[in-house]
Amino acid sequence: MDLKKLFSQVKRKPKEKSSKASSEVRTPTERDYDRILFSTPVRRLADKTQVFPLERNDSIRTRLTHSHEVANLARSIGVDLAFNSNVFEDLGENAKRNVPAMLGAIGLAHDLGNPPFGHQGEEAIRSWFRDNQDILNADKDDTPLTDAMKQDFLLFEGNAQTIRLLTRLQIIDDEYGLNLTCGTLAALMKYTVPSNKIDDSDNPHVAKKKFGYFQSEAEIVKDVWKKTNLSEGKRHPLTYIMEACDDIAYTVLDAEDAVKKKLVSFHDLIAFLKHHGNGDKLVDQVCTKACEDNDKYRKNLTSLSPSELNDISMQKFRVHAIGAMVSSVSNTFIEHKEQILEGCFPKDLLDASQAVNLKKKLKIFDKENAYLHRSVLEVELKGYNTIRAIMDYLWKSICLNEDKRGPFETYVYERISENYRRAYENESSLPKRYRQLQLMTDMVSGMTDNYAVDFYNEIRSFENAKV
Question: Is the dihedral of CA 223, 229, 230, 231 positive or negative?
Fold first, then answer.
């Protein structure tokens, strides 16, 4: 694989000629990170669920803090690989700047397309389409939807929405979105097949487990692949690192948040890992170091309250666990670099590493003690029902022609973001029904948790006031 093409600094928008000498010292990839950081969708992540929806405790993670942590972990691995290995030597000195910068950018952006209320939000959207499949059939005067177009909605993916958001919906002054480099866009795609080509076998390739782009962005993706020398089913090598960092962040840090919320304690976690670790060397190593710290703090810092001791001990567990997992990911990347650089490595990096058991046990612990906790399930159910109700309201307005909308339907339609309506109204190459459905999912996906609740209450109050 041609590394220089994989890290393509080319952008999809034709380069404008300038008579002025540029004073820009950042590389295009470094500018990608900055453009993403200052974009509106990043700020919205502050009010999107990581694990605990509508959380009032500011120390509990949101999608924003999660994304910054993934970006930090990914960039750190990138620095290590760029400076301390020969994996990216073909890039020359540019590797030391562009590898960490690209990993930081895709780590920060990886969850931008997720709807409110986390994965329950995605499932709410999918379930609404499953229950309303008749609307996937276009009117007799419209072009019928292909199977892939229908699957875009029935299997709705936040990952695909991220690509759409950055290439189309974040409009600056044209149709190129944030106009990121092709290298960054390619690396951002965790899955590299359309919705009708998902591999649902028992042992799918990591790039085919879900779909990575909607039919509306198919031509954009083909253009990105052409410029980066990738193709359907092949992953960008940095995508493996970003996904591993996402897994590290949520398995370790979701456990820390469960402790912070006092759903469980540091000792509960250690007892669970020791009991279920089955003698795994890395699990034992992390637990031993964390327990040694706990003993030290308990003996030497006698002024600490039980709550403070619990909190600081969990922080040290986080340090040891993340350090062990990051080191394992880096080593695994180097060990399998040939396959990874070709985009053909079939597994997740973390699953192929020595940290696989630590990841699996933490994932079980998180599920049993956080994800399935009654307080979480109650709010997730509220979010699930809220999103489905919002889609009912939006669809009643979107499916009507302008001259058929009453005052209520007109109000609801005008509440849709201008960016989303502009994308809908300016696109003419796709069936009208597909564009209508996508306008609805664009609006819902762009909402934050609190905005969704407020929007629903607002629309419902107007509906109840109708004569």
Answer: positive
